[in-house]
Amino acid sequence: MMRYGVAMASILRRVSQSFVNHRLLASPFKTDLMRPMVTLSWPFSAQPRDFSLPNPSWSKEMMQQYDLYTSQGEAEDGEEGSGPWIRLPSYNRTLKFATGGACLSKIIQSEARLFTRNITVPGAGFEYVLFIKKTQEKCVCIFQAGHLLEGPPGHVHGGATAAMIDTVNGTHASYLCGPVVTANLNINYRSPIPLGSTVMLESTLGQREGRKTFFSCRVTSTDGSKVYVESKALFLSISVSHILGGTTEHLIRYHDVTPGDITALPTRDLEDSETMRRTWRTRRP
Ligand SMILES: CCCCC/C=C\C/C=C\C/C=C\C/C=C\CCCC(=O)SCCNC(=O)CCNC(=O)[C@H](O)C(C)(C)COP(=O)(O)OP(=O)(O)OC[C@H]1O[C@@H](n2cnc3c(N)ncnc32)[C@H](O)[C@@H]1OP(=O)(O)O
């Protein structure tokens, strides 16, 4: 009971610290173009929740791995440590803080949510945090699979694992190459992943051939002794209009958007926005 109390106190301390870190992380990105930020902490504030920060549902194993990587690295804005790993913040809307013309504001105001962040009950779905190596050839993810991700009884659904692999490879690819889409994802499931367990995903940069960039991914136990999944993926670099072209077509058909709005569509705003700068890095190795 005593140990439980101490553990809970430690978790609560960690979470309240994470709120502080979260505010520190969020503030540098404030611009005139963004919604006003208030000083209250999530879940009471209008600030975005950074889902990659610890919450009380994180297991001891997840926290150990998180502490290991954060102690060897720094947050994206360079506030923690000075090791080789950078923690990547993670929100449930990719474009939430972008601004722009009529079409874009419709996209922003929609109910869309990033698939792997749309279960908001802590511990129920995808709990994960990504770290990228400063040298950029590796990106790792600590992933705790919640009970809503069941496939075979007591084990993680293969589609949930695929979504996580796509997320880790996709984020890695976006960080290195800017706007990309997955063209091909080939997965070998070697061993079922128990629900509730914590696993590591390691994305490795492969060949780069023009617009094509290849990645591999391994899902293992946190000590690396058990291999659950191995995969290979191809990402293709695209222009922002490749994605928005389809979106605007849909908006004309189903929403209150005219072709005039499309002509005025500020893809430049997208490319200029803080969100795009932060999510789609333009650095190349
Ligand atoms: C403005 C929006 C902002 C949104 C920001 C969003 C997120 C980024 C930020 C942070 C990341 C956060 C979370 C990450 C989470 C998840 C990542 C999700 C990524 C996805 O989940 S994304 C959805 C699934 N994805 C699609 O929805 C793609 C649909 N598809 C297409 O959009 C086209 O199909 C495309 C573009 C792929 C190709 O079309 P294309 O016309 O541009 O190119 P083309 O066909 O000419 O091929 C050129 C060369 O690629 C080879 N090639 C093509 N396809 C191949 C294949 N399948 N296998 C092997 N090789 C292939 C050809 O053989 C040729 O090769 P070569 O040049 O050697 O001949």
TrEMBL record:
Stored SUPFAM superfamilies: Thioesterase/thiol ester dehydrase-isomerase
Catalytic activity: hexadecanoyl-CoA + H2O = hexadecanoate + CoA + H(+); (5Z,8Z,11Z,14Z)-eicosatetraenoyl-CoA + H2O = (5Z,8Z,11Z,14Z)-eicosatetraenoate + CoA + H(+); (9Z)-octadecenoyl-CoA + H2O = (9Z)-octadecenoate + CoA + H(+); decanoyl-CoA + H2O = decanoate + CoA + H(+)
Cellular localization per UniProt: Cell projection, Ruffle membrane; Cytoplasm; Mitochondrion inner membrane; Mitochondrion intermembrane space
UniProt xrefs under Gene3D superfamilies: Hotdog Thioesterase
Assigned keywords, A-Z: Apoptosis, Cell membrane, Cell projection, Cytoplasm, Fatty acid metabolism, Hydrolase, Lipid metabolism, Membrane, Mitochondrion, Mitochondrion inner membrane, Transit peptide
Membrane topology summary: Peripheral membrane protein
Any one GO MF annotation of this record: hydrolase activity
Biased composition (Basic and acidic residues): 268-277
Record GO biological process: apoptotic process; fatty acid metabolic process
Source species, domain of life: Eukaryota
Pfam assignment, any one: 4HBT
The Thioesterase domain, residue ranges: 154-226
Cellular component aspect of the GO annotation: mitochondrial inner membrane; mitochondrial intermembrane space; ruffle membrane
Region (Disordered), start-end ranges: 265-285
Documented EC number(s): 3.1.2.2
Annotated family: Belongs to the THEM4/THEM5 thioesterase family.
Name the record gives this protein: Acyl-coenzyme A thioesterase THEM4
Gene transcribed to yield this protein: them4
